[in-house]
Amino acid sequence: MTRQRITEAAERTLNAWLNGLMQGEVLIQDLPLAVSAWFHAGEACGRASRQTEIDDFEREVQRLGYLAFHTPGERRDMLLARLNHGLTTASPEQWDQLEADLHEMAGTQLNSDTSKHSARTSNALADGVTNEPGNPRTRKAA
């Protein structure tokens, strides 16, 4: 497709409106509907292209909020309630997928040396036990 052309006067007007928008001197609702429609179409395309990233950030914000504002016991209870609800409402297809996912995780991640190390490290950190010299709670080598 070849680039469409407009008159020089139309281009000057559009550029003036764009500069006004960028400088905060013109509001989008002050522009003609045909022009503001281009803005809204661009915004919708941009939002759609980043929605997965936005969803990921929102989940991370929620997770960090739980960590910051809830005790471990409260977080455990919330997680158990979510799991219980999900398991009681799961379809047979979802059960099959869950079983396959758990089997895959158990075969690759849960039995790997790194996950065992991570679990030991997480437990030690939760207990305040480290391998730092001079720490009175330093764990003895196993």
Q: What attributes characterize this protein structure?
A:
142 residues, mainly alpha, 5 helices, 73% helix, elongated, disordered C terminus
Describe the structure in brief.
With 142 residues, the protein is mainly α. The protein is 73% helix and 0% strand.
List the helices and strands and how they pair.
Layout (H helix, E strand, L loop, with lengths): L7 H16 L9 H37 L2 H18 L2 H17 L4 H15 L15
Give the % helix. Answer: over 70%
Radius of gyration: 28 Å
Structural class: mainly alpha
For the sheet with most strands, the description reads: none
Detailed description of the structure:
- The protein has five helices and no strands.
- The protein is an all-alpha fold.
